[in-house]
Predict the 3D structure of the following.
Amino acid sequence: MKKSLTKKTIQGREYFYLCYRTKGKLTTKYLGTVDSPKYKKYLLSLTKSGATYGLRRSRIDNWKAGVPIAYIEDSYIVLEYKNGVKEYLDSKENVKKVVFPNG
């Protein structure tokens, strides 16, 4: 189920809501302010459940387009190709090492 985090500002205070559809109807769930336990628990659940979602999604999109994905790992820029090869680049974009999927 796709959910959207919505912020409303009322008299200078920010309030957060979760909006999603159930059986075609828009449902809103109140999470509270930035300091509320409900809001903090929701943010924690995002980091636990979807920590790798963005990386998985970019793999699909980029590899369909024929380009590698890029991410940071141990202070290196990593370019990961569809065939499993990973290039590790330093901050000046010099290749430091290449890792092949079969060793």
